[in-house]
Design goal:
3 strands; three-stranded antiparallel sheet; elongated; alpha+beta; about 55% helix
Length: about 170
Amino acid sequence: SDGTVVYVSSAIEAVMGYRPEEVIGQPFITFIHEDDRETLIVDFDAIFAGTLYPSEYRLRRKSGAIAWVRSSSRPVLDRNGKPVALQGTLMEITQRKLAEQALQTVIERYGRHHPRIARFRRVLGRVQYAQGAFAEAWEQLILEHGALRDRFGDQHPLCIRNLVHLAEVMG
């Protein structure tokens, strides 16, 4: 509950440039862009209270560059049902955010009714839809695993199957 990272997949290296052992044991907030920290703390407090929704924020890569991510988290409960940690997933959305910013720049320069804006919005909409569909499926898998683990424990065959599936998806 103090925000220290206790597990991270090797996939974090592709998003942030850090190896898992460089992230584990560190406060998660130190990787968050300074301008997004306050909002993210409010989001995490809401998730601890049981309100589940995705968050979009910036992380600072090992190189110092910024990566936009979408995260979906859920509270991890102790045996008494008290939230003690957060478990979640991250998906990089930097390219989508850059496209949204580019669209906003074009709108500001040429106005909302320029012919290229409509085409750009259609393409961006398809990208957002595909990312959203993947994120929702992934979030459901994480939530299913967490619910099974909370109910039956880590050694239940369904939990083990889900962990194997998560590992295969994460590579």
